[in-house]
Amino acid sequence: MMRNDIAIAFFSRSGENYKVGSVERGSGALIAEMIEKAVQADAYEIVRERPYPESYEECNRDAEAERKANDRPKLKDPVPEVSARKLILVYPNWWGDLPMPVYTFLDSIDTDGLEIYPVCTHEGNGIGFTERCISQVYPKAKVMRGLALRGSDVQKDSAGTEAAIARYLSSASLI
Ligand SMILES: Cc1cc2nc3c(=O)[nH]c(=O)nc-3n(C[C@H](O)[C@H](O)[C@H](O)COP(=O)(O)O)c2cc1C
């Protein structure tokens, strides 16, 4: 049975990425699937309507322009209503911040009193400033202690990743 007290949303990019070469599924997508199984809830995938380029360099240029403009890009799929008051949010660290489509998503849901559990993938900068970024833009949300995982570790060590996620979810009383 699916539970409705916890929502899961993730943004993740397949294609060429730093340290991992070209991947069929981004690290966040792999993590989201593990979280879905562990908490027994479905995840919503945050997908930008206009896909990011496959090339890492081109994606960097595209994402940087979007970030400088503080853009809220259109999403491919309609955002579902989030009635759960706990949200596990999986995203990569992009220059210490969230990818802009994640803001589009958060703008579309009711963040008043929402407990946000950030799960951030990165390649060296950890969770960066992302927790602070969320708190600043959504002051009515409650940003809970997060989890940071290296994308390259997630890609090569699924057992270790699954164990780290289980520890985190259990310490946060989400399972
Ligand atoms: C546009 C862009 C910017 C990034 N900026 C950072 C950064 O500032 N610090 C960092 O540690 N990793 C950075 N990374 C690496 C990603 O956080 C890392 O590859 C992550 O695992 C990607 O998750 P995904 O596979 O779910 O998309 C960046 C990657 C991209 C594509």
Question: What keywords describe this structure?
Answer:
175 residues, alpha/beta, Rossmann fold, six-stranded parallel beta sheet, two-stranded antiparallel ribbon, 35% helix, globular, binds flavin mononucleotide
Short description:
The protein has 175 residues and is of the alpha/beta class. 35% of the residues lie in helices and 20% in strands.
Helicity, as a percent range: 25-40%
**Number of helical stretches of at least 4 residues:** 6
Order of helices and strands: EEEHEHEHEHEEHH
Number of strands: 8
Which geometry do the CA atoms define? globular
The helix-and-strand class reads alpha/beta
Low-confidence stretches: none
* Main sheet: strands, sense, barrel: 6 strands, parallel
CATH superfamily: Flavodoxin domain
Radius of gyration: 15 Å
Number of domains: 1
Q: Which architecture per CATH? A: 3-Layer(aba) Sandwich
> What small ligands are held by the chains?
flavin mononucleotide
- Give average pLDDT, whole number: 97
CATH class: Alpha Beta
CATH topology name, in short, is Rossmann fold
For the terminal residues, how far apart are their CA atoms?
14 Å
Strand portion, in percent?
Answer: 15-25%
